[in-house]
Amino acid sequence: MHGKLFDKERLGYCYQCGKCSSGCDINRLDPSFQPHRFLHLISMGAGARLLKDEGIWKCTTCFACSERCPQGIRVTEILWLARAMAVASGFVPDLVANQRDALLRTGRLIPVDNRKRERAGLPQIQEEPSLAARIFEMVRKH
């Protein structure tokens, strides 16, 4: 794969103890999410398969996996890089693409629910997509 984060020698230090997975909050909610399995895929040369695995997008980047790793493997950074590589290869799950589009359009990941706000006695929030779009455009230019 790419750079020092995917250095096969460094990943060879992973002996699949599972501490990264057992300390993961996402793993508690979804036992199929196992960061040590992602490391195994990379070390076995199946990194391309990892890029198409929607599981890499479940990571909340809390760094618990990296902090728990007795071998000092930077698991969170590896997942970030895998995401970046997935995007570069054209694979972005629909949920992630929808959140990206909403963020660029409105500046929020979750749309405002004015009906819920009204029931709670709160004023409505007017979406200002042009402001969010302008901010992101300015950031891209710098």
Structural notes for this entry:
The chain is mostly helical. The chain has two domains: about 5-90, Alpha-helical ferredoxin (Fumarate Reductase Iron-sulfur Protein, Chain B, domain 2); about 95-140, no CATH class. About 55% of the residues lie in helices and about 0% in strands. The protein has ten helices and no strands. The longest helix has 14 residues, at about 75-90. The radius of gyration is 19 Å and the shape is elongated. The two termini are about 30 Å apart. The mean pLDDT is about 85.
SSE inventory with pairings:
Blueprint: H1 8-11, H2 19-22, H3 25-29, H4 35-43, H5 47-51, H6 64-68, H7 75-88, H8 94-106, H9 114-119, H10 129-141
Helix pairs in contact: 8-10
Q: Which band does the percent of strand residues land in? A: under 5%
Unreliable stretches: none
Q: What would CATH call the homologous superfamily of the largest domain? A: Alpha-helical ferredoxin
CATH architecture of the largest domain: Orthogonal Bundle
Shape: elongated
Could you name the key traits of this structure?
142 residues, mainly alpha, Fumarate Reductase Iron-sulfur Protein, Chain B, domain 2, 2 domains, 10 helices, elongated
Compact overview of the structure:
The protein is mainly α and 142 residues long.
